TrEMBL record:
Species in which this protein is naturally found: Flavivirga spongiicola
Protein name: Zinc ribbon domain-containing protein
Compositionally biased tracts (Polar residues): 1-14
Region (Disordered): 1-21
Domain of life of the source: Bacteria
Length: 203
């Protein structure tokens, strides 16, 4: 994402480095935000398209895929769905977009603003869209790929829990740590670091 520089109005010969930076107008800022939204849409579309396209996107962004061990852990649980984009990978791509956008915003913020409307739009985008980008989009993605639960599953889980309670079995205590974002269980020996499924720090 980038904003083009304005052309000189006189007939003098100027190099690219001599061209003045345009003021930060509402129109320029909307162009920047449109480019951001287009990139986010590309990421979301690719995350739901095919494994091949997703791998290509990871390579282009220079992001290491999640390990097969983490993906196998997800396969062994009926709680999770292995969608095209593994959630931990998706989170890394969002973080990259956030980082790149913040870097470009810094250069925009150094320009004089053309109007108060431009300043307000910039502040709103920075505070309410960019700062919460990873959290909001990851939660939306997790909700989209979450396996559908039928009433039969609900009754089966309830019956299983009741049987364990009646037998005095409180469950496997070795998996007592759960991710607050996606609910993935983690063993007590692995309770630090990031969630294997969605990549969110456990603490």
């Amino acid at each position: 994402m980038s904003i083009k520089k304005t052309t000189p109005t006189d007939n003098s010969v100027q190099g690219p480095e001599d061209l003045p930076e345009p003021k930060l107008s509402k129109a320029l800022l909307k162009e920047f935000i449109d480019q951001f939204n287009a990139k986010l849409k590309e990421i979301n579309d690719t995350a739901r398209s095919s494994h091949t396209k997703w791998r290509i996107l990871l390579e282009q962004e220079g992001i290491e895929p999640s390990s097969e061990k983490d993906k196998q852990n997800a396969r062994q649980s009926k709680q999770f769905n292995l969608a095209v984009a593994f959630p931990a990978e998706y989170r890394k791509v969002l973080q990259q977009l956030q980082k790149n956008t913040q870097s470009e915003l810094e250069s925009l913020q150094n320009r004089p603003t053309e109007s108060s409307e431009a300043s307000k739009l910039l502040d709103s985008f920075n505070r309410f869209t960019l700062s919460d980008l990873v959290t909001i989009e990851l939660q939306r993605y997790l909700g989209d790929i979450k396996p559908k639960v039928s009433m039969a599953d609900v009754f089966a889980n309830a019956a299983g829990s009741l049987n364990k309670y009646s037998a005095g079995d409180s469950g496997d205590k070795s998996y007592s740590v759960k991710c607050k974002t996606c609910g993935a269980a983690r063993s007590e020996e692995e309770q630090y670091g990031d969630c294997f499924y969605c990549g969110t720090p456990l603490f």
